[in-house]
Amino acid sequence: MHQKLIPALTAISLILCQSELATAADETVVEVPRHPPARKSAPKDSSMQLVQPAAPNASVAQNRTAKPRCGEVVVTALLASGSEPISLTCSIRLSSANVITHPLVFEGSGASGSLLDCNGATLDVSAGRSRKEKTAIVVRSRRTGSGTWDAPSGVTVRNCKIKGFVRVYGLGENANGEAMRLSSHNAHHTAFAQASAPKDVRVENVAFDAPGGIPFYVGPGVTGAALVDTRIGGTSTSVAVYLDAESANNNISNNLFTIATEKRELIAIDGSARNRITNNVFGQAENGGIYLYRNCGEGGVIRHQEPQYNQIIGNTFRYRSLYFLKPAVWLNSRNGKRNYCFKDPAFPFGSSASNLDLARHNVVRGNKLQGGPRDLIRNDDPTNDIGGNVAIVGR
Q: Can you give the pLDDT at residue 230?
């Protein structure tokens, strides 16, 4: 364990607020015709600014009240050709024949309760030249004039074919931005990041065809997100699902992962806690299954939350090769073995005080290792509950 020098510094003040939990229904969803009137203009997406709000309730909403249906102007813009981002603060049901080429943005509390039911339609932004242009759906917080962060909750996306990525975030697209860096100097950073981020975002019954990137990215501080009953295919130069720093209480369940990663694991739990990863099938686990770690000091940002109290239960990891197999589950996979671990400033908390991953109190039970030995579950901390995992001969 590496201890850093700890100067006395003034803490950043946090503004705390509360967001409402949403409840579910589809009665107000508008049905989109198969042949809408053509129109080129589309509402422009406003770029995210850096901001700050308060601590949210991390519990997952079980019921959601859908936002009123989208108006004709929004529907026409959505179905027109083009690649301009479109902001949605309403609910819509598409036709299975629809192909949407616009990135869709759910921003701020005004988007809370929005429901996108693709009904088999395709969201295709795979022609984009950058990762941002290939992001089909963004659910993000918005900076207000007073400097607080206005976060959406209860956004639902279902029954879609997505040729692109989905990204959910608050203070920043990832944990390395300036808002995250400044907030991380405060002892209450985790609560602030969670208050600033979307919650209870649900993606269900979706088919991903990832065009060389991370299909589902849960950004810093996001709570209560769910990816369920979904097929994750395509390719990724990174991982398939990323649970970023200070996020918590997310649910990755009943999914089929057929995606091929270039060299990394399928799910990264990076300083994220109290998540449930259950009953998934990982069809190509050769590069690794689920890794728990904490990116100490990356981007000069202090990582506060440890990857603890996660449940990894009832999953199947399939190995097609007998050689050079990487772990199905690896707790404490990094433990300070990165050169950026010393780039965060000296404070008496988080990765500033220790570069270790500190993946403790996690449960890894009832998982099947198909084609691989039981020692592909790697653990070095006695507080983790490991048991009932079985190796199955054959592929």
A: 98
